[in-house]
Amino acid sequence: MTLALAAALAGCTSIGVLGTPDPLVSSTGSATSNVLAAASDPSVDPEHERIVATYGGVYDDPAAAQAVARAVGRIVAASDDPSQSYRITILNSPAINAFALPSGNLYVTRGLIGLADDTSEVAAVIAHEMAHVTARHAMARARRVEVASEVTKMANVMQDQDAQRLALASTQLSLARFSQVQELEADAVGVRTLARAGFDPFAASRFLTSMARWAEYRAARGNSSKNPDFLSSHPSTPERISFAVRSAREIGAPGIGEQEREQYLKGLDGMVYGDDPSEGYVRGRSFLHKGLGIQFTVPVGYTLENTTKAVLATDAQGMAMRFDGVSLAPDTALSAYLASGWINGLVAGSITTTAIGDLPAATATARADGWAFRIGVVRKGRTVFRFIFAAQDDGTALDTALAETMASFRRLTPEESTRLRPLRIRVVRVKPGETVERLADQMVGVERKTELFRILNGLGPGEAPEAGRLVKIVADG
User: Fold this and answer.
1) How far is CA 56 from the centre of its chain?
2) Both 92 and 168 in a single domain?
3) Alpha-carbon gap, residue 129 to 205, rounded angstroms
4) Residues 114, 271: contact at Cβ < 8 Å?
5) Is residue 428 located within the same domain as residue 399?
6) Cα(6)–Cα(2) distance, rounded to whole angstroms?
7) Which domain holds residue 460?
8) 272-325, pLDDT tens digit by residue?
9) CA-to-CA separations, 33 to 5, 180, 264, 336, in angstroms, rounded
């Protein structure tokens, strides 16, 4: 049994975004259900519906769409191929991501829009992704992959195992380096496009810095490697930031170009922050779902992440959790369900029936592929909720984590469900004498408030916003 803890979709997770000309945004700002389409819409891409479904659907927010659209027309006109058509979609996901398809379909998440601090930073992402399209990077990479596939086939028939491994490693490294070159090329083209469009060319390095700080904030405490993978398809973030700064300095000194900060931030006021209400809410170490009427809390040290398929959690010791739900016929016993074959490596005799309050429950143990698993199920009506904890060390910590989490599982009261509302970005103006700590203290539903406030507002350590400046905070409802 393998535990799928995250799905990494192909795309630029380092800097990229979507675009679309202003004329197609209506006077009401509906922006065609938040899919901003260029005048000549690209042919329907078969990948489009899959991407939209994977990222929680399309995010419908006219003000946010307008904030993005202001950047797009200028970037398209200043791009290397102004005749290229684009279809821009804002995805309803808190993830910080953007990517492009060869067809001209470009995607940006609302999480990325919320992290950006001005129009020029969004424009930097758009310019980067458009550079991938105009440079035909996807097709070039496809040709490289085809060649790599042929090399792999030949390597697999070699008698010499050492030579086989060397050939495969060399092919992988060559492909990774090719992808890194593409990313840096798109960075350079993007910075030049920013400048031609009249935007601040240093916006690319600013946003890359914000993304790096966000990644560190999100990383489970101490369990993320700081060392770049030499086979990664993207250059390391410090390398990209340095490259983006050098590219901008070739154009001019800091302070040139437009940023359009105030207008951009006003368009973000009220935008959903974090999880979509239909997918439930993460509040610190707790997960709450209004529709399902449930709540649970993971142990201290775990970091929760909500996805469209499951709720995931990891800790600094390398343990991981997956939570989801399935429909089960009322006459099927939980013990029979655990033994029905969906768990590989089930340890004989490990199934135990129990109860969580008035809800029937059961637990089991499994071992497979060098991993140890503790599985717990809880029945509520026709739904069986599943907790799966995994670690490579088969110790008591797994038992403790499962027991503690399952013990916290309970129904939400009607009053709690009524009070449960999505978090939103609120844009406020800094008052004289207000400190970072005081502003951050206004935020709700998030951890490490001061650190997050600085990241969301592009403030470095020790830097304070001046009176009169607009800043983003996270508020309830």
Assistant:
1) 11
2) yes
3) 15
4) yes
5) no
6) 12
7) 422-476
8) 998 887 888 888 899 999 999 999 999 999 988 888 789 999 988 889 999 999
9) 31, 35, 20, 46
Which residues lie closer than 8 Å to 356 by C-beta, 6 or more apart?
Answer: 378, 406, 407, 409, 410
Q: Which two tokens stand for residue 255?
A: 């302070």
- Strands 272-273, 423-429: parallel, antiparallel or unpaired by DSSP? antiparallel
Q: How long a stretch of residues is the chain?
A: 477
Q: What tokens were used for 69? A: 């659209």
What is the structure's pLDDT at 278?
81
What is the distance, to the nearest Å, from the Cα of residue 145 to the centroid of all Cα atoms in its chain?
26
Q: For residue 395, tell me if it sits in a domain.
A: yes
Query: Both 223 and 335 in a single domain?
Result: no
pTM of the model: 0.71
Q: How far, in Å, CA of 13 to CA of 211, rounded?
A: 9
18, 233, 248, 370, 406 from 365: Cα distances, Å: 45, 37, 56, 14, 15
Assigned token pair, 87: 């279809």
Cα(320)–Cα(312) distance, rounded to whole angstroms?
A: 7
- Asked whether residue 277 is assigned to any structural domain, the reply reads no
DSSP state of 207: H
Percent of the chain topping pLDDT 90:
51
Tokens found for residue 18? 């979507």
Q: Are residues 303 and 317 in the same domain?
A: yes
Answer yes or no: are the C-beta atoms of 64 and 90 closer than 8 Å. yes
203 close to 118: Cβ distance less than 8 angstroms: yes
